[in-house]
Amino acid sequence: MNALAEELRRLVGDAHVLARPTQLLVYRSDALPGLQRDPGLAVFPGTREELIAVVRVLAAHGAPFVTRGAGTGLSGGALADGITLLGVHRLKRIIDIDPVARTATVEPGVVNALLTKAAAPHGLHYAPDPSSQTACTIGGNIAENAGGPHCLKYGVTLDHVVRATIALPDGEVLTLDRGDHGGYDLLGAFVGSEGCFGVVVDVTVRLMPDPEAVITLLADFTSVRAAADATSLIVAAGILPAALELMDRPTIEAVESSIYAAGYPRDAAAVLLVEVDGPAAGLDDDAAAVERLCRESGARDVRVARDPAERARLWQGRKKAFGAMGRISPHLVVQDAVVPRSRLAELLDSIAAIGEKHRVRICNVFHAGDGNLHPNIPYDAHDADESARVHAAMREIMATCIAAGGTITGEHGVGLDKLEYMEQLFTADTLDAMCSLRDVFDPARRANPGKTVPVRSCREWHAAVSARSVAGA
Amino acid sequence: MTRDNWTFDFPRPADGDLPRTAAEAASVVRDAIDAQQGLRLAGSGTWLEAGHPVRARRTMSMRLMAGITSYNPADLTLTCGAGTTLAELKEATRAHGQWCPLAPPGFDLVNTIGATAAAAVEGPYAATFGRPRSLVLGLECVDGTGRIIAAGGRVVKNVAGFDLTRTMIGAWGTLGAITQVHLRLRALPAATECWSVRVDRGDRTRLDAYLRGPLAPLACMKAVPPVQLPPREDEWHMVQIGGNTAFVAASRAALRAVGETVPQHETALDALAGLHRPPARALQWRWDALSLRLRDRFDPHHILNPGLLGEPA
C-alpha cells in the first residue's frame, strides 16, 4: 500500500491522497447508515489525465479499488473494504453544452443539479432527478443507473446517456455507445454496472427541453389503500404524469415537523403528489382527469399549486423526506423495491402487517407511478434488538416483493446491501451470465470487488483467476 | 405454422429445431455445440439478408415459441414468446386501449417480437414512445453455452444486477437466442390523426421548428417516391399527431402553418414505416477487443448466427 500511495502522491499531489485512518473516516459509509467499511487509501485525481493515470497505476499494482462520486448511494456500493477508494468529485468540469443537438458532455464529478442549472439558459434540463440531486454526481448516476421522480415519464439515466469515455480497470481508455451504428450495446451494459466495469472519464448526456407548462397537484387521502388505488387508476387510464409520488402519514409527519415543511395535510393517511407537464395545449384536461380519478378513489381534497414557489415547496418536502426522517431516529434504512403497479394497495397492506409483526415503524415515500416502493424504517443501530427486528422486517418485505413478481431494487442498486437477495431473484445460470458480463470488462475483478453479484455465483471464478495469472505472467 | 409452409431458401428447421420452450432451445444449442455445428436463428424467416452470410447448415426457428403468456393491462406490461408476431400483440393490446409502439420495418403479420428485439430495429415512434432497447423490460434467452438466462424482470423499473437485457437486445442472436420477452406497453393516444405536409426542398426550417417544439407529433416520416422522378421543388412528409383532443387540435393548427396539408388514413404512416429499409447495422458491425471478448464469453464455440456480423473467423 505504501509504494502505491507514494506513486499516487507523485501523480496527484500529497493533498489528494489520504492514508491516515482519521482522514479516511468520512469515507467509511455512503448515505445508507448501518453499513460501514474503512478504505485503506483514498485518491482524488483532479484532471482527466490524472484520473486515467491513477487507474493505470492501480492496474500496474494489481490493486483493487472502488470508484466514488459524492457518496450519496443507498446500497453500500461505494464502500471500500481496506482497498483503494478512487474519488472523482474533483472532476467537475462541464466540457460542453450543445443546445442544438440538446446534449451535454461532462466529467464524472459534475453534480446532477448543477448540470441542469448550466443548461437552464438554453431552456433545457437534465431529466433524471434523484432526490440527492443537489449533491450526487453524474458519474455516480451512471454507475447506479439512477432514477428519480420524473423518470416515470422521461426514463432513467440509461435513457439519457448517449456516449461515454471510460477507463477499463486495466487502464485501457475507450468510448462506448449504444451500438446504433452497428455494435453491441456496450454502453447499455456499462450503465448501472455499479462501478464494477470501469471508471467514467467523460459522458455525453441528452438534455430535454423544459416543458411548456407544468401543473402540480396534491391529493389528500384518508387511507393509503385509496391513494394506491388512485395511482393504479391513473396508470391504467393511460395518463402519463411526469411524476406520481406517494407519501404516507409517518412521512408527512416527519416532513411537516422539519424545516422542509411543505404544507402537506397532517391528518391525511397519505398524499399523492402528481405532476403533469408538456405542451400547454391539452394539459388542463390531463390535470382534470387526474383530479377526477383521485376523487373517484376517495380523495378528500385535491389542491393545485398556484405558482412556481408553491410547486417548489411541495417538491422540497418530497425530496428532503429522507433527511427529515433524521429527526425521528439516528439511523434509517431506505429500501427500494419495485412491484407491479396494479398490486400497490395489496402490497402496502402486506408491508404494514410486516412492520406490526416486527414492531418497527415504516415510512413510505415512493415513486408510486412506477411501482417503485421505498419503505423506510427509522431505527437506532446501537439497539441490537431493534436492529435485528428491522433487518428481519426488511428481509420479509423483500421476499414479499419478489413473490409478487417484483424486483429488489429499482434505482438504488444492489451494492453490498442487497447481495443476499440476488439468489432469490435470479437463477444460477443468470447470475453466472452476469459474472461473464463482468469478466468482459474486468477479468481481474479489481473494480468494486465483492459487490452486486455474489462471488459464489460465479462458476468460473477460480478458473478465470488462475488462467489470468498464467496469461499475465 | 407447419413445416410445409417454409418456402425460404435457407435450411429448413428440422422438427427438433422448432423449440416450444427455452429448455428445448437449450437442448438444440447443446446439441449444436456437441456437433460443432453453427445455428442460424430465425423468427418468421422473412429477413435473411440483413448481414453477412451465416455459416450454418442448420436453422433454429423461434416461430412456434409464440403466444402471450401473461398480460395485465392495468400494469401496462406483457410477457410473450419470442415467436409472437407484432400483429398478435397489436390485436391483444388494442382491446385495452394499449399498444406496443415498435412498428419496425416489414409486416406485422410476420415480424416477430424476438427478431425485433434481437435486431433492435425501431420504427417512427421510437423518439416518442421508446425503442426496443427501452421497451423490453426483461427477456429469456439461451446463450451459446446452453445457459438459460432470465434477464431483467417484468416490472417497469429494475436495476438488480448487471444488465443482460440491454446486452442481448441488438446483438442479433450472437450472444443468445431470445426465447421470451417482457414488454412495457403504452396507452394508445385518445385521438390520432395522420396528415401529409408539403415543404420546400432545401428549406425545412418551419418543419424542424414544428418537430422540435411543444406541439410535436408522435412521428414524422419522409414520403419516398417508389420510382426515380425528375427533381422536384418540394417534398412530402407524413405526420402522425396524437394526444388528447385539445392537443391534437393545437398540433394540427401548427402543422397547417408549416405547409399545405392533406389528410391521410390513420394507418398511412404505419404502412409507410413498414416499407422503410432498416439501417444496415449488421453489415457495419464494429468489432473491437471488448466486443470480441463479449462474443467469446457468451458464445465461445461460435454456434449462434456465426458470420452474420462479419466477425473475424
Q: What descriptive keywords fit this protein?
A:
heterodimer, A: 473 residues, alpha+beta, seven-stranded antiparallel β-sheet, 17 helices, 36% helix, globular, disordered C terminus, B: 313 residues, Uridine Diphospho-n-acetylenolpyruvylglucosamine Reductase, domain 3, Alpha-Beta Plaits, five-stranded antiparallel β-sheet, four-stranded antiparallel β-sheet
- What is the CATH architecture descriptor of the largest domain in chain B? 2-Layer Sandwich
Summarize the helix and strand pattern of chain B as letters. HEEEEHEHHHEEHEEEHEEHEHH
**Which residues of chain B form runs of ≥5 with pLDDT under 50?**
1-8
The major beta sheet of chain A can be summarized as: 7 strands, antiparallel
State the end-to-end CA separation of chain A. Answer: 21 Å
- Give the CA-based shape of chain A: globular
Helix proportion of residues of chain B, in percent? 25-40%
**Count of alpha/pi helices of chain B:** 10
Structurally, the number of domains of chain B stands at 2
Judging from the principal axes of the Cα atoms, what is the shape of chain B? globular
* Percent helix of chain A: 25-40%
Judged by helices, strands and strand pairing, the structural class of chain B is alpha+beta
The tally of beta strands of chain A, per DSSP, is: 20
Rounded mean pLDDT of chain B is 92
Can you describe what's shown?
- The complex is a heterodimer of chains A (473) and B (313).
- With 473 residues, chain A is α+β, with helices and mostly antiparallel strands.
- Chain A is 36% helix and 19% strand.
- Chain A has helices at residues 2-12, 21-24, 48-60, 112-119, 138-144, 151-154, 186-190, 224-236, 249-256, 283-296, 308-319, 321-324, 344-357, 384-403, 419-425, 428-441, 461-472; strands at 17-18, 41-43, 65-68, 84-87, 94-98, 103-106, 124-125, 161-167, 173-177, 199-206, 208-209, 213-221, 243-248, 270-278, 301-304, 331-334, 337-338, 363-366, 372-373, 375-379.
- A seven-stranded antiparallel β-sheet of chain A has the order 15-12-14-13-18-20-16, sandwiched between helices.
- In chain A, a hairpin with a 4-residue loop joins strand 5 and strand 6.
- Chain A is globular.
- The longest helix of chain B has 14 residues, at 22-35.
- Classes of the chains: A alpha+beta (473), B alpha+beta (313).
- Chains A and B meet through helix 7, helix 8, helix 10 and helix 16 of A and strand 7, helix 6, strand 9, helix 8 and helix 10 of B.
